[in-house]
């Protein structure tokens, strides 16, 4: 499963629409969640609406929270998205099994069957492979919030390590340059908490907020990683063995 979690406190003001970019991410199998961070102030109606629209277009969740609630919110959205993604896959299968007249919901199953399906969903939520790309707004207004962001990322990684299945995090910040370009990858895929702390000491804080370009950059990163996995599988199993790529829930 692939997730993108954007942490921001304001409105996009450079490049293409982040809502359109989030829709492209969903088409690539990447769910987009957005945590809007406030601290002694407000994001504003425009920013709040954009945060909600990005998450909706990306098939994910949005929350606007204070810095003290950020860590809990990130963990909640990540786990909730895992369950939702698996549930959607199960519902599609149920609809195929039960026929065209089915709504594809667990309520259509007898109680015993429903209980077994819920148990499978719970197991998959803990055992499925999970990649989460954290995308941090590094505009100037976010500087006072960085300690809370760092703590929240560390707590998220520790919670993911408690899962049975493999979990990895990659960390990006935007803008990627003084000119408001895209995003930069600060930490490649890792499950090592210690790699996060050193990143924050060198994180540049700039004025622009290119949320749309940042999302597109992270989509490309996911695409590159997927291609790399497919190449490794081809090398391991050889060509013509019927393995063409990863199964992504």
From TrEMBL:
Domain VWFA, chain residue ranges per copy: 131-249
InterPro entries, per database record: VWF_A, vWFA_dom_sf
Coiled-coil parts of chain: none
SUPFAM superfamilies attached to this UniProt entry: vWA-like (SSF53300)
CDD domains the record matches: vWFA
Superkingdom assignment: Bacteria
Protein name, entry field: VWFA domain-containing protein
